[in-house]
Amino acid sequence: MKKVEDILSDILSEIKNKQRRQALIKIFNLLLRLNYKKNFIKEELKFNKNFFSVPSKLLEKENKRYKPLINLLLENDIIEYYTHYIDNDPNREDPLFGKSKKTASYSTIKKQSIQYRILIDVSECEIEPYECEYNWYNTTKRSLEKLDLFNKVGRCLYGRRVHTIFTRNMSLELGGEMIKSYKKYFNQVQSGLYSSIDIHQSQPTFLSLLMKKMGYEDKLLFDIIDSDTDIYYFIQDQLELSTDRIEGRNKAKKLFQRFISKNEKDPKIKALNNLFSGVYLFKNTMNVGDYKNTSRLLQREESSFFIDEVFEKEIDLDFCITIHDSFIVKNEYVDELFNKLNNKYPQFKFKKEGM
Hints:
Blueprint: H1 4-7, H2 9-12, H3 18-35, E1 37-39, E2 44-46, E3 52-53, H4 56-62, H5 66-75, E4 79-81, E5 83-85, E6 93-94, E7 98-99, E8 102-104, E9 115-118, H6 135-146, E10 154-155, E11 162-163, E12 172-174, E13 177-179, H7 182-189, E14 194-199, H8 202-213, H9 219-226, H10 231-239, H11 245-261, H12 267-275, H13 277-286, H14 293-314, E15 320-322, E16 326-330, H15 331-344, E17 350-354
Antiparallel strand pairs: 1-2, 3-9, 4-9, 5-8, 6-7, 10-11, 12-13, 14-16, 14-17, 15-16
Helix pairs in contact: 8-14, 10-11, 11-12
């Protein structure tokens, strides 16, 4: 196995400053870790030859002055970044700059990270072990180990959600019975020991906050979120989805998720486009170039709050697991955490439930 120092020997030999050499090695090690995909069934690492996303926050955590180091790798054809033509039109003629030029493909507004690809052969390169300093990671890992269920903890690049055994097509055989959902696991296997805390109508709430932050308006959505009205019951009544309140609310929730994700010819989606005309304008603007942008952006807003804000800074417990927009904690801690979240984040309506 080769070390990073061997792979980058030509570049490193030209850098006189020892600290800068070490900084470059660390940045390239980070790229290697993000590039490789681990197959946990075969227990092997697979080198990814395609482009992969590299969040700037990870680069900043490794080195705040990462840009000159990345540029050094780009200039020496060690890596390249994914590019696209401005306006996605290679034939466009700009009156000031002439023919459309390629530019790095990323968006701070839509929270899309720049994508890189490693150009050299690193299949025999040794990857430096990584000690994670994040509270959310170490607490989640420790909690899963207590349940004897730890296999992998990671964050996806799509919505930056934390994924564990409970969110990856769960399939556990316990006592001759297959358990395929975290709710069933905690209700049956760990009954009465844990509680969940989540946000009431989470997706519509994050949508309204995001639209306000970005200068968009939808009076109907904002009024519903700011009041005690349940948006899913409102949709159920407006579209006459079902006479059964529970069934109708579930249908309305799934319909709202489809409404956010894409435009469909379904008359019910068209009805929501008319009801929430401000949201319709917002998602059409965000979805230029990729119909998944609004969904991705909302997931990242949610993850940023739950993981980077609350889990990382506010939670100091021996057991806590996050399932997208909820926390699972021991019953003895639930009231204290519930009150803390309600007091610190009044813009959200938290609810708790025993499991």
